[in-house]
Structures are given as C-alpha cells and as structure tokens.
C-alpha cells in the first residue's frame, strides 16, 4: 500500500472499480457498451440501456448500504495499522425487448464475468486483471451472494444479478 490511509479504503476501491470497469474492453469499452454507473441512478436514466453495471448500488435496494467494511487492529505493530475487510455492492443487468430468459441470464453473467476479469491475477505475472487494484488492497474478488432476479421492465425482459466485490486492505499511518 503506497499511500497512507487512515479511515477506510472503501472510497478508493469504489473509484478504482468504476475507472477500471469503464476502461475495460469487456465492459465500458466493449461494443456494445456496458454502461458503468458509480452509485445509484434514477430509473429513467437506465431503463432503455441493454447492458448496465452499477458499482456501489443495486437498483432493487435503493435505500440500503452500498458498501460495508470491518476493521481489526493488528497487535504486532502497536496500533499503527488496521486491517480492513470490505464489500462493495454491485449489480449487472441485461435487458432488451426480447423475452427469452436465457439470452438475458447469459448477458448478465457475461457482465459479472467482465468484473471478475478485472480482479484476476496481477499485472507482474501477466494476469488479465489486478487483484490488488493497483496496490490499494492485498486482494479482491467477486463474491456472493449472487442474487439473480428476472423481471419484466419497459416492454421487455431483464435479468439483474446483484453481487459483491470483496477486498482486504491495510490502513496505515505515515
């Protein structure tokens, strides 16, 4: 961890996920594009988009926590550091006027898979992604519970997958 962090890595992890997803050729830079949103959006902003990824939000849980973290004091270093375990809520949705459930279930799974690729391996080893998020955390991963919610919206069928990105970080003083 290169930068001292006293309170939490949740903001930095969220920022990293948004930027990495927007730049990913499997997500935001893909064609057709996966629209990547930082936090909740008004329903009208997303209802006509076929492929959507929310980082730090789920459209089905409008008033719930978007991230959680717990911290523990390592006793070895006299309280100069804390370890933080965190979870960022994410949601992937695939939608169109097509009413075939499999099409949208597979499309939502592909978006979640794109997020997984962001967090697989480390650049020094030639991995497709970076489980350290550029050195912000010790490790990160896509975790469950995975909630699969099929639904009919805006004249078509959609599949929404809610999941978490988990991480472990060390908070340090300078």
Please count the helical segments.
3
Helical content band: 10-25%
End-to-end Cα distance = 11 Å
Number of strands: 6
| Average pLDDT reading | 86
The third-level CATH topology is: STM4215-like
Q: Can you tell me the CATH architecture? A: 2-Layer Sandwich
Q: How many domains would you count in the coordinates?
A: 1
Task: Describe it.
With about 170 residues, the protein is an alpha+beta fold. It has a single domain (about 10-170), classed as STM4215-like. The chain has helices at about 10-25, 45, 100-120, and strands at about 35-40, 50-55, 65-70, 80-95, 140-155, 155-170. Strands 1, 2, 3, 4, 5 and 6 form a six-stranded mixed beta sheet that branches. Strand 3 and strand 4 (about 80-95) form a beta hairpin.
Q: Quick gist of this model?
A:
This protein is of the alpha+beta class. The protein contains 3 helices and 6 strands; from the N terminus they run H-E-H-E-E-E-H-E-E.
Sequence-ordered SSE layout with sheet pairings:
Elements: H1 10-23, E1 35-38, H2 43-46, E2 51-55, E3 67-72, E4 81-96, H3 101-118, E5 139-153, E6 156-172
Parallel strand pairs: 1-2
Antiparallel strand pairs: 2-4, 3-4, 4-6, 5-6
């Amino acid at each position: 961890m290169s930068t001292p962090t006293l309170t939490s890595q949740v903001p930095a992890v969220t920022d990293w996920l948004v930027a990495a997803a927007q730049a990913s050729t499997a997500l935001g830079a893909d064609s057709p594009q996966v629209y990547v949103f930082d936090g909740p959006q008004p329903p009208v902003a997303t209802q006509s988009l076929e492929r959507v990824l929310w980082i730090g939000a789920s459209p089905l849980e409008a008033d719930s926590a978007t991230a959680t973290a717990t911290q523990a004091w390592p006793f070895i270093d006299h309280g100069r550091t804390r370890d933080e375990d965190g979870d960022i809520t994410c949601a992937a949705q695939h939608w169109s006027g097509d009413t075939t459930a499999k099409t949208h279930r597979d499309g939502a799974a592909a978006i979640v898979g794109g997020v997984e690729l962001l967090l697989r391996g480390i650049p020094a080893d030639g991995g497709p992604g970076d489980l350290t998020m550029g050195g912000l955390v010790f490790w990160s991963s896509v975790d469950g519970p995975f909630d699969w919610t099929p639904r009919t919206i805006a004249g078509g069928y959609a599949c929404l997958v809610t999941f978490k990105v988990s991480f472990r970080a060390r908070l340090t003083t300078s």
